[in-house]
Amino acid sequence: MTKQEAIHFLQEHLKSMKYLESAMGVLSWDMEVMAPVKGIEYRSEVLGYLSVEHHKLATDTRIGCALNALENESDLMQVEQKLVDFFKDSFEKNTKIPESLQRDLTVATSKGGQYWKQAKEKQDYSIFKPYLQKVIDLVIKQAECVGYEGHIYNACLDDFEKGMTVEELDRIFPPLRDGLVKLLNQIKESRVCIKLHPSGEFDKARQEKLTNQVLDMMGYDYHEAGRIDETEHPFTTSLGIGDTRITTHYYEDNLESGLFSSIHEGGHAIYDQNMPHELSDYGLDEAPSMGIHESQSRFYENIIGRSLPFWKGYYKKLQELFPEYGWTTLEEFYGMINAVKPSLIRTEADEVTYSLHVIIRYEIEKLMMSGEVTVDELPALWNQKYEEYLGITPTNDSEGVMQDVHWSEALIGYFPSYALGNLYGAQFYHQMKKEIPNVEEQLEAGDLSQVFMWLKEKIHSQGNLYSPSELVEKVTGEKLNPMYFLDYLNEKYSKIYKL
Ligand SMILES: [Zn+2]
């Protein structure tokens, strides 16, 4: 195989995989959004079949032949090298994991999910424990097969945050944790009383109008290149070039939940819409990592969406649509959407406590992978960390150690990306303010276009050309530094809670 032939083969192969992913994406979206209940079982079988076909493509031995042909090629273009790296990485990983282990993992996660659900409902950890043990054993085995340098947990991290290591997270997370705990304790001491949300019946049609207005301002094109639908759990899905959809969930007794989750998903969607699609033949129209993707959704949701400047410009419009907020001043509203309250549930956490939930999981996962904690010890360790960092203790294991679905699905190493998203976002914002000094005035004027353009130029259009750490350095001129996020929080919450 010549160099040209090998590159051409990889490009065509990538295209086949992407077409299949697109088809699976449409079927999954349909299953979540509109398929009738009685059609779910058959649909799941179809999806199972297609995912097997996808796995066959991903492990096709011809990939190995093409990679061999390119082995000693030194004059590849940057984009070609990226294509080769992508296949090398995924192909080697896929082929290093024996089929029997792959099968064991599929069985273990399917059972794990089932028993996790049951155990959670019954608040009985002992039901889930043996299945969790099985999953951990298999993930350790998988890490051994794939190989790693340094800590065994590095093998897990690599799946979600390319290049991220325990050594790096141990540099970043401890100062972040200590800073957050300190801020949280100051907030707990504050005498400022945040007013309660006005109650009312916020009908869906009005909520939809509000959400669409905000998403239009953000620059999410759901008119010709996307859709907004409703599902139980909101998500974003890109089904191919020109088709990035989001879902949201409106609650009639709560205006803010639907609004902020739509802004969050909108942030993900804008990213996907502005990828360098001209590089799709090289697989580069993708985010470099989960954490970078999350940085964009959290940027819009929190840094913009929960900021005072944004609401200075927009609150009147909200009040026009929702007279229920007529008695709530802008400052009171700003306090409400930023209220800090330690809770046991990660997904409902505020901006200050959210990353603490993640750090707890990171610290525990690391010990799980190195065998320093047993499944018997997990519930007590979990509760002890919640008491230590957040000052609250779960009353049962369902709101404690069994809270998230991730472990039952063998998604160990996923959590850190959530917190990294916050850190990347704050560091990007610090740089954005240097380059657009009047960004707050623009927000007050209801103009998000320069924010959009900046993110598009610096981050979205870079696709997967750089690793997460390279991208952060390229955009901000320095390595990931947790102080930007802490500074941002300290400044914001000192004002809200008069610290
Ligand atoms: Zn997200």
From TrEMBL:
Its EC number is 3.4.17.19. Binds 1 zinc ion per subunit. GO terms for biological process: proteolysis. Zn(2+) binds at H264, H268, E294. The keyword Hydrolase applies. Keywords: Carboxypeptidase, Hydrolase, Metal-binding, Metalloprotease, Protease, Zinc. One of its GO terms (molecular function) is metal ion binding. It is an enzyme of class 3 (hydrolase). It catalyses: Release of a C-terminal amino acid with broad specificity, except for -Pro. The active site is at E265. Its cofactor is Zn(2+). The keyword Protease applies. Pfam families: Peptidase_M32 (PF02074). Belongs to the peptidase M32 family. Broad specificity carboxypetidase that releases amino acids sequentially from the C-terminus, including neutral, aromatic, polar and basic residues. This is Metal-dependent carboxypeptidase. It comes from Turicibacter sanguinis.
